[in-house]
Design a protein that fits this description.
It holds the Pfam family Acetyltransf_CG. 24% of the residues lie in helices and 35% in strands. The relative contact order is 0.19.
Length: 99
């Protein structure tokens, strides 16, 4: 399944959309604070659960955070767990503020 992840700053979230034009398949809410993205909540539409949308969404959000030169505070347990399983993204975590 093709998944495109894009920042939707007007809604303070990253959105995952499928190539079929069906709309938003999932999102990660965030707030910006002191040069870091605080990722607070991840949600995937039940129609897309178990299809890799959540992982693609987190990867896309973290890639954007990295491209922007920010750090991340993974408040959301799903995001924190994903980073724990993908240590190549651990450098983004602001250890002094993560919670």
């Amino acid at each position: 399944m093709d998944i495109e992840v894009a920042d939707a700053p007007e809604r303070n979230r990253y959105e995952a959309r499928t190539g079929d034009g069906a709309g938003v398949a999932g999102y990660v809410d965030y707030r910006m604070a002191d040069g870091r993205a605080v990722l607070t909540h991840t949600e995937v539409d039940s129609a897309y659960e178990g299809q890799g949308v959540g992982g693609a969404l987190v990867r896309g959000a973290l890639d954007d955070v990295r491209d922007r030169g920010l750090s991340v505070d993974p408040v959301c347990p799903f995001v924190k767990g994903w980073i724990d399983r993908h240590p190549d993204y651990a450098d983004l975590v602001d250890e002094s503020r993560s919670g």
